[in-house]
Input
Amino acid sequence: MGAPLGSLFELLLPLAVCATGTSFLLSFYLYIRSFWAPHHALAPGGNTGNPLYDFFIGRELNPRIGNFDLKYFCELRPGLIGWVVINLGMLMKEVELRDSPSLAMILVNSFQLLYEAVLTTMDIVHDGFGFMLVFGDLAWVPFTYSLQASFLVVHPQELGAAAAAGIVLINGIGYYIFRKSNSQKNMFRRDPKHPSVSNLETIATATGKRLLVSGWWGLVRHPNYLGDLLMALAWTLPCGFSHLLPYFYVVYFTVLLVHREARDERQCRGKYGLAWDAYCQRVPYRIFPYLY
Ligand code: NDP
Output
C-alpha cells in the first residue's frame, strides 16, 4: 500500500522510548480507574492490597471504554501485530539498502509469523491488566522479539541453501512437537475417550484426573516447552554466530520456560501429591530428553 515501512528502522529507538513512557501512563490510568470497577470485574491475583504489586499485576480483568476492550486491543494490535509490522519494516529496510530481502530475513519473518498464528491468548482470560502486561504488549514484545530482524539489517548474513534447509527443519520439528504435544494434552483433558488419546498409558491421581505417562508427555514432562525452544533457536540461527544480541530471545525464553516449568511442577505436586512423584519417576526429564 506504499506505506514507508522501511523508516521504522531509524525510528526503533524513539518509538521504544515512547512505548515505555506510554506503558507507565496507561498503567497509572488503569490502576486508578480500577477503584471504580465492580467487584466481579477484578482479577483475583491483582488485589492483594499492596499498591506496588497490584499496579504491576493489574487489578481489573478486562478494562473497557464503552465496548473497547483495552487488554484485547493492546495484546493484539501494538503487541502481536506491532511485532509483525516491525519485522516487515526491517525486511523493507533491507530491500531499500540491498535491493532484495535476504534469505535469513525471509526465514525470520516467516517463522515468527507462523508462531503468532498459533499463540494461545491465555492472559486474556485469567490475568488482570497491569503494568506487566501493558509494558509487555506495548514495549517488550514488539521491540525485543523483533531483535533478530533488526540485527539482520545491520549485520547481513550469507545463508547457504543447506544451512537454510537445516534451520527450516529445526523450526519444523519444533513446530510439530509444540503443536502435537499441546493438542494431545488438550484432547486428553477434554475427552479422554477420544480415539487419538484413548490408547495412551495413564496414571490415576487422588483428584480423579489422570496423568499421561506415554505419548509426548511420556518423553519429557514438558514436551510443549521443548518444541517452543527449538523454534526459538531456529529464529536465531539465521543471524549467524558473530554476535550475542540475536541470541537474546532464546536465552531469555529458556530462563522463562525453566522458571515456568518449576512453578508448574510445584503446583502439580501440590495438586497430585504421590501420583505426581510417580509420574516424575516414570518420566525423569523435565524439558530436554537426557539433559534436563
Ligand atoms: P502447559 O500447557 O504446559 O500445561 C501444564 C499443565 O498441564 C499442568 O499444570 C497440568 O494441569 C497438565 N499436565 C502436566 N503434565 C501432564 C500429564 N502428564 N498429563 C496430563 N496433563 C498434564 O502450560 P503453559 O500454559 O505453561 O504452556 C502452554 C503453551 O504456551 C506451551 O506450548 C508453552 O510453550 C507456550 N508458552 C509460550 C510463551 C511465550 O511467551 N511465547 C510463554 C509461556 C508459555 P492439569 O493437570 O490441571 O490439567
Remarks:
- The chain has a mean pLDDT of 92.
